[in-house]
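Observation: inputs received (chain + glycinamide ribonucleotide).
Thought: call the complex predictor directly.
Action: predict_structure
Action Input:
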Amino acid sequence: MTPKNDACRLVVLISGRGSNMQAIVKTAQDTGVNARVCAVISNKPDAAGLVWAHEQGVDTRVVSHRDYPSREAFDADLARAIDAYEPHYVLLAGFMRVLTPAFVEHFNGRLINIHPSLLPAFPGLHTHQQALALGVQWHGCTVHFVTPVLDHGPILAQGIVPVMASDTINDLSDRLLSVEHAMYERVVRWLAEGRVTLDALQRVHVQGVATRSFVLTSQGVQSPEFCHE
Ligand code: GAR
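Observation:
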């Protein structure tokens, strides 16, 4: 949990385009949100998102997994690079690396991921393809705390979009992305406001928030209703 009054320090990890990272940076730049993106770190030197982040004046770093002999060695150096910024939370935003249990343990309760499916459905890769292949009529995305089990962990928020008969993988992925951005923005606000806790059963609680579900409607992404206690 972020200490009251302190700006919530965030490090964002990306591997590519970084549209979720952009949504997070823009939210932190909003004067009404007490959060700061201290760094954007990529495992890929050519990640397009790095250029955008640098242009925004955000520190950028590359820790290329190709420079390391093992997953463990890469994760250890990545953890060191992140720790230098002393973040309250580390946000994975299209970071396409499986992380070692030691790394996950090091950031226990501070490591958050966005996954493009309504977990526990469709962990892993090619989630839009899997959704279309199975003919599901709602597809979704999940923001969750990271555990050593891939694409699994306490759920912070989930969002859904309808699947259209004519959808291609790109159509579905683009539609879902608007929900991903709205949802990650909202989660950053909750983190910055120090509302998020995990209980002994590893369930998420967000103080004063009645629902953490998001739906794409014809009016856009509908945010949860707030009910302050
Ligand atoms: C997003 O759809 C994100 O949910 C997904 O990669 C995309 C990255 O886009 N993440 C995963 O698949 C993680 N397993 P972005 O770089 O534009 O944010």
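Thought: report the result.
Final Answer: The two ends are 18 Å apart (CA to CA). The helical segments are 19-29, 48-55, 71-83, 101-106, 127-134, 169-192.
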